[in-house]
Design brief:
The chain is an all-beta fold. The chain contains no helices and eleven strands. Helices cover 0% and strands 53% of the residues.
C-alpha cells in the first residue's frame, strides 16, 4: 500500500518562504516519477514540479526560479522549497506519484 503524506503548509506573507515535505511509503522506488501539484479555490489541479530519475526536474512557468523540488530517497521524502511566495501561490499542494495522491497541505500567502 502506498502512502503519501504532505506537511509544512501554513500562512505566510508575500515574499516569504515555506518548505513542504512529502513522506512516502509503500512500493514507490527511486526510479518512480514523483511530483507536486496544486489546486487553488475554484480552479483545476495544476502541475507545479515533476521529478524524474532520468532527467531534469520540470517546473510550471509560474514557479520557475522561485520553487525547487528535491527528493531524498534515503529518507523516503520529497520536498518543495518555495521562495518569494506570491498571493497567487495560495492553494492546496498535493504530493503525487503515478496512480497515487496525498491528501494535500494548504498554503496561504497573504498580501
Amino acid at each position: 500500500q502506498v502512502q503519501l503524506v504532505e506537511s509544512g503548509g501554513g500562512l505566510v506573507q508575500a515574499g516569504g518562504s515555506l518548505r513542504l515535505s512529502c513522506a512516502f511509503s509503500g512500493i514507490i522506488t527511486s526510479s518512480d516519477v514523483m511530483g507536486w501539484y496544486r489546486q487553488a479555490p475554484g480552479k483545476q489541479r495544476d502541475m507545479v514540479a515533476i521529478i524524474t530519475p532520468y532527467g531534469p526536474t520540470t517546473y510550471a512557468d509560474s514557479v520557475k526560479g522561485r520553487f525547487t523540488a528535491s527528493r531524498d530517497n534515503a529518507k523516503n521524502t520529497m520536498y518543495l522549497q518555495m521562495n518569494s511566495l506570491k498571493p497567487e501561490d495560495t492553494a492546496v499542494y498535493y504530493c503525487y506519484s503515478p496512480g497515487y495522491w496525498g491528501r494535500g497541505t494548504l498554503v496561504t500567502v497573504s498580501e
